[in-house]
# Entry
Amino acid sequence: MFFKRSVPVTIAFVCGVLQVLDYFFKWGIVNKAAQETRAWVALVAVFALGLGAVNVLRVHLRRVQQNPVKNATSVLLLITFLVTIFIGLTAGQSSKPYKFIFDYIIVPTGSAIFSLLAFYIGTAAYRAFRARTLEAGILLVTGCIVMLGKVPLGEKILPFAPKWTTWIMQVLNVGGQRGVMIAGAIGFIAVSLRIITGLDRHTYGVE
Amino acid sequence: MFVAKRIFDFFALMVACGLIGWWIRQAMRGANIRIRPIAGFDAIDEAIGRATEMGKPLHFTPGFGGLVAATFAGLEALSYIARKAAEYDARLIVTVSQPETYAVTEQVERQAYLEAGKADSFRPEDCRFISPDQWAYASGVVGVLMREKVASNIMIGQFAAESLILAEAGNTVGAIQIAGTTNAYQIPFFVAACDYVILGDEMFAAGAHFADNKAHLGSLRGEDFIKAICIGLIIVGAVLTTFGSNFLTNLLAK
# Structure
């Protein structure tokens, strides 16, 4: 229990307090120590990335073993995974083949997934705007005003729409969002305090 | 000694930590602290039950964030979900984006199965690291939701622009969906696409809600007091500014 509980809690406490002191005070040794511990995060993340890579391999190798035809995407994933690692290790990250993978495979596929958002916003809005309850009705009316206020034609249809849109966005919307942000920030303080004092036992994987 | 313009922040943090600490102490000494029911948390049992009855998997993701407070709140919920899933022999698939979160998530899940007395039922391949890249993570999770035809989709943690993509994919497969995040910009997407939404800081009540954890109950009471102080400051600030005084604004900027 000492190595599983006390050591991680002590490390978390020291590192957590260091970061707080670093943010508020100009103390040479503390600032330097805090900077050093932040650099350690990258090292820990690299080890964790190794664990993640092993997990990806394990999950997809099993899928390939079960049915390589049905799980052809897993075969593809494993091939690209190994090819990328091979090129990265042998030719380096600034090499042409590696840049090709990044610029012509990763970036376009990422953009394609991002572009799906446009369609999903439409389908989600359609469901949200079905005025089945009073709240959904208010949402529908508010949404319509804001949409009309944001398009040039909207002012011709509803002359007061731009003015109301500004008020809805700057007063109601900002007020609500700030409420969530303030409450969230207070929650962050509480969670952080519980973690660095060892009161959040699940964080350390022990009960 | 102090970094410029952070003096008030420091004392505000000290007051906040003091209040939370004091209430944690009070809770541990037996103070009677109750929390209101949160529909999103109550619905988690329903989601697990649905997956069990349908014989389909249950999906959980703590989101795209690293080891931040919202992720830890998600992991609190995961601990309960994994324990219940183990008890009911429901298959739980967990997808993770960040490598450091993956290591902690797997440990939390393993521990939950152990606590449920079903350590052998834990399948490490069902706790899946997807990718630290936002859109690769989104497409990976969508793939899992579609291929596995999950009965329930629970998303509690730190989410960014991928939130709606995940929620719509869950909706497409007909899963009951519970989501929670502190990201104010993503909450509307979850509200539009999910059955239950845990709004903002309600997430931090997970430990208190599921485990009746005294430290969590105490810290929630402390948070409520800090919120009350913040509301007071906002009202006083609005009144002072209306009458032309910048006293509070200047104080906060110190």
